[in-house]
Design goal:
Distance between the termini: 34 Å
Strand content: under 5%
Oligomer: single chain
Number of helices: 6
Radius of gyration: 17 Å
Helix content: 55-70%
Order of helices and strands: HHHHEEHH
Number of strands: 2
Largest sheet: 2 strands, antiparallel
Strand order of the largest sheet: 1-2
C-alpha cells in the first residue's frame, strides 16, 4: 500500500508541475501525468529487455528469485492484466510469458503488452480515470488499474536495474547521464 500511495503522490506532483508549467492551461493534468509516468517506465522496461544479452536472460542473483527473463515475462503478463481492466476488455493474453525463455520472444512480448497498454493511457482523461471498472473482481476507479501498471512496472524496473548492474551493464535510466 505504501508503494501505491507513493506512486499516487508522484503522479499528483507531476500533474501539478505540468499544470503550472503550462500556465494553468493544461486540460488534462492528471491523465497527462499518468501518460508521462507510463512513457517513462515503459521505455525503461523495454530498454532493459533489449539491453540484456540473450545468454543472461536466465541470470538470477540468487536461486530463489525470478530470472531476468522471468521478470520481463511477468511484466508483460501483468501489463495485459492491468490494462485489460483499464480498457474494459477481456485479457487478450492467453500465454504465460514467465515460462518463455528466448530473448527475442520476451522482447516482443513486453513490447506488445506495452502497445496494448498505450491505448488505455492514450484514451485516459481526467474524467475517465474516475469511472468504475472491475479490477480483481471488485469495483475500482480506472485510475487504480493505470496506477498499478505504472507502479508494477517501476517496481520491477528496480529489479532489472540490479540484474543489469550485476552483469556490468548500465541501465537505461542511467545511460544518458554517463
Amino acid at each position: 500500500m505504501k508503494l501505491y500511495s507513493s506512486v499516487v503522490m508522484v503522479c499528483l506532483a507531476t500533474a501539478g508541475t505540468a499544470f503550472a508549467q503550462a500556465g494553468g492551461d493544461q486540460k488534462q493534468p492528471a491523465a497527462d501525468a499518468l501518460r508521462q509516468s507510463w512513457d517513462n517506465v515503459k521505455a525503461m522496461v523495454a530498454g532493459s529487455a533489449e539491453l540484456m544479452p540473450e545468454d543472461k536472460y536466465a541470470f538470477k542473483p540468487t536461486p530463489d528469485v525470478r530470472s531476468f527473463g522471468g521478470i520481463i515475462g511477468h511484466v508483460a503478463n501483468s501489463n495485459y492484466m492491468f490494462c485489460s481492466a483499464a480498457r474494459g476488455d477481456e485479457n487478450p493474453n492467453k500465454e504465460d510469458f514467465e515460462k518463455t525463455t528466448e530473448k527475442a520472444a520476451l522482447v516482443e512480448a513486453v513490447k506488445a503488452s506495452i502497445a496494448y497498454c498505450d491505448e488505455a493511457f492514450t484514451k485516459a482523461t481526467d474524467a475517465s480515470v474516475g469511472e468504475q471498472i472491475k479490477l480483481f473482481g471488485r469495483d475500482a476507479a480506472r485510475i487504480n488499474a493505470l496506477l498499478m501498471t505504472v507502479a508494477h512496472g517501476s517496481q520491477h524496473y528496480g529489479n532489472l536495474v540490479t540484474y543489469l548492474r550485476m552483469n556490468e551493464l548500465v541501465p537505461p535510466s542511467s545511460a544518458g547521464s554517463q
